[in-house]
What does this fold into?
Amino acid sequence: MNSPNHPNLSYQPALPISNGKLALWLFLSTEIMFFTGLIGTYLVLRFGAPEGTWPSPEEVHVAEWIGAVNTFVLLCSSVTIVMAFENAKQNMPSRAKKWLWATIACGCLFLGIKGYEYASKYNHGIYPRFPRSLMYDRADLTFLDGVKLETSKLIKEALSSPNSAAVAELDGADREDGKGEDELQAGHSKITLVVLEQSHSQMTTAEQLQLVQSGLVKWTETKVGRTDDPTMQKLAIEGLAYQIYPRAFPEQQAQRIKKFFADENIETQQRLQTLSEQVQQRQKQLQVSQTELSTLQADADAIEDAGQKKTVLANLAKIKNSTDELTLDITRLTVERDFVAGRLKAMKTFPVGDGGGVNEKHHLKLPMVIPSGNTWANTYFLLTGLHGIHVLIGLIIFACLLPMRLDAVRSGLVENVGLYWHFVDVVWIFLFPLIYLF
Amino acid sequence: MHDSDQKSNSAAPAASDHTAKDRKPFFAIVFVMLLGLTAMSFWVANSHLMDNPKMGWAAMMAISTAKAMLVILFFMHLWWEKSWKYVLTVPVTIIGVVLVLLLIPDVGNRFATYSKTRRTAAPEPYLESLSAEPFTELSKPEPVRTEQLPTE
It folds into this structure.
């Protein structure tokens, strides 16, 4: 190295690589630790969740093939960036640039697919939310309360939104214009009656929600309140959860709930019949006593004698009293009858276990029971989100390289960026099976 | 990063011995292997190996590790680097593996020391739900009779 006359004092780096590359490898070591920590935490939460509660990919709308496509896209981008580096090293800048463009395209495609996935999670209500997400760990009273509150909130929103009429039009494409408006007007004031008469396709979102509120939520609440048997209470609430979001239920439990609902339905129909008969009977009685009342009234008016009048008036008061009682009774029975009829209508509108339940068939976004669903969503968005941010940063750096001439002089730069990009790919290689296939 | 710096370093041993060779066909082979391994893990996830999930998970993790090794060794060309590569990769690997191993007892202990309080608040699988203890503090809502339903 040294010439005899002039000792060539060249700087010798500690490692035989460029400072940039050394810095990048140091950065990558910290990144490895960062993702090891994240993935380690995920493993603790995933395998530390009570057995049988971690949601399977289908339960939370994770499509394996989308993950596989994204893996393919990222692998392709790894190859393209390595090709960009090789071409830059061999001093072929225009080819290197082409490969860099291909890498950017792959990165954008990856983020696009990720965005599509996120959107589908959001549409199904699978995301953390303040103050409480739509996912509940178990079907209990807290869940029931959550459904009640959320439904009330949604009803308020649906009624106040300016395009609720437009939504109504969309929902019932075949409804006639004038009639539709009337029904909408009526629907706001006297919802249940309208709902009872409408077929499903003609219902607005608000009407559907009101039917859910009375026919499903209030019904379940009443059922839980009227029995002391904890198993029945539990089954009633799980039934509601199943009706809203059946995906998270294992087959065995689904069968049990379907049977429970079938039995209940027969019972409800009988009850409706009995109640209708009772109401009719009371109404007849009421008519009789009302005519009696009017004749007595006429008699009382006609009678002059004070003593006689007093007895008639006493009699009159007695009958009036019983008439009032009868009216009250009829009101009570009618309310009960309509409540039962509303339940039957709700069960017909939202058939159990059909088309993915209330949430997926009717897009109502009600609270759902997905055991460990919240922890799942947190870890999913944290892991894929942080990985996505890394992809985004990589793309920004690639964009910075675009105006440069990627010749042999710049190959070191391309190499360093490539190292970072490969690391992002390695992280995804582990995330793919952990999130999509486990 | 200065150009002169780059130049002097690209003349350094790292690039010198292989610059002449064209690695492009080799990368194509690695790429095909990676695709094959991805397909394999996809197959494992949908095969009978998942009847015993632990087997399936282990297989998928092994495949992932193989894929990661391919990427790190060839795409990140650690394979051709001089021995400096061990300075950074070995400690990081050790710390990473140790971290995961240290977390394993936590996973195991979660079940061994599951307190009753925690059990009550924990997510519950549906299969167990009927045999499990029912919720205890049950506040009974009044039977809904005064519902705002039409009186006709």
User: Anything to note?
Assistant: Confidence is low (pLDDT under 50) at residues 166-195 of chain A.
